[in-house]
Design brief:
The chain has about 190 residues and is mainly alpha-helical. It is about 80% helix and about 0% strand.
C-alpha cells in the first residue's frame, strides 16, 4: 500500500471513529455532517470524498466487502452445479464471514446495532444493503450453474438465517455467529424433506 493509500485509509477511519463517538454521545439524529467533520478535523469536501451522507458512515466498508466476496467466490471452479443443500453451505460460509467482519470491533458493533434498531431510515438502508448481498450471491450461484430455483432461494434463505440470528443475538457480538450458525443448522435439517 502506498503512502497516499495509507493516508486515505487513516482519514476514512478517523471520520468513522469521530462519527461513532458523536452517535454514542448524542444519538444519530442529533449529529450532523458538520459535527462529524469538526470532530474528525477534516473539511466537508473530504467527508464527501469518502461518504455520500452520514448514513453511509454507519455502513462503512460495505463496498469493500462486496468486492472481496466477488473476488473470493466468482471465479470459484465447480465440478457440478450446486444443489440447494450445497448452495446453502456456501451461503453459510459467506454469511458467517459477514458476521465475523461485523463483530471484529465489538464496541462498534453494539453501537451500530443500536443505531439501526432506533432509526427506521438506517434499518431501511441496512435492508437494502442486505439485498445487494443477496443479488451478488444469486449471481455467483448462477455463474456456478445452479438452477434458477437454487440460485434465488439459497441467498434469500441465508438472509433469513442472518436476520434471525441477529435478532436472537441482540447486541451481543459474541452471540451473533453462533446464533446465525444455529439458524443454518435448523434450516439444513429441513432441506430435502418433502
Amino acid at each position: 500500500m502506498t503512502l497516499w493509500q495509507r493516508k486515505m485509509r487513516r482519514t476514512r477511519a478517523e471520520i468513522v471513529a469521530a462519527a461513532y463517538e458523536l452517535f454514542a454521545e448524542r444519538g444519530y439524529a442529533e449529529v450532523t455532517v458538520a459535527d462529524i467533520v469538526e470532530r474528525a478535523e477534516v473539511g466537508r469536501s473530504t467527508f464527501f470524498r469518502y461518504f455520500g451522507d452520514k448514513q453511509e458512515v454507519v455502513f462503512d466498508g460495505e463496498q469493500e466487502f462486496l468486492d472481496e466476496v466477488h473476488a473470493r467466490y466468482e471465479p470459484m471452479p465447480v465440478r457440478r452445479a450446486p444443489d440447494l443443500a450445497t448452495a446453502l453451505e456456501l451461503m453459510r460460509g459467506l454469511v458467517l464471514s459477514i458476521c465475523a467482519g461485523a463483530v471484529s470491533d465489538p464496541d462498534l458493533y453494539r453501537v451500530r446495532e443500536r443505531l439501526i434498531s432506533e432509526n427506521p431510515d438506517l434499518a431501511d438502508r441496512g435492508g437494502r444493503k442486505l439485498g445487494r448481498v443477496v443479488d451478488l450471491a444469486t449471481g455467483i450461484l448462477r455463474g456456478m450453474g445452479a438452477d434458477e430455483r437454487t440460485a434465488v432461494l439459497a441467498p434469500w434463505l441465508a438472509r433469513a438465517c442472518f436476520q434471525a440470528g441477529r435478532e436472537l443475538a441482540g447486541n451481543d457480538p459474541d452471540a451473533l455467529g453462533p446464533a446465525v450458525s444455529d439458524a443454518f443448522d435448523s434450516l439444513s435439517r429441513q432441506v430435502g424433506r418433502p
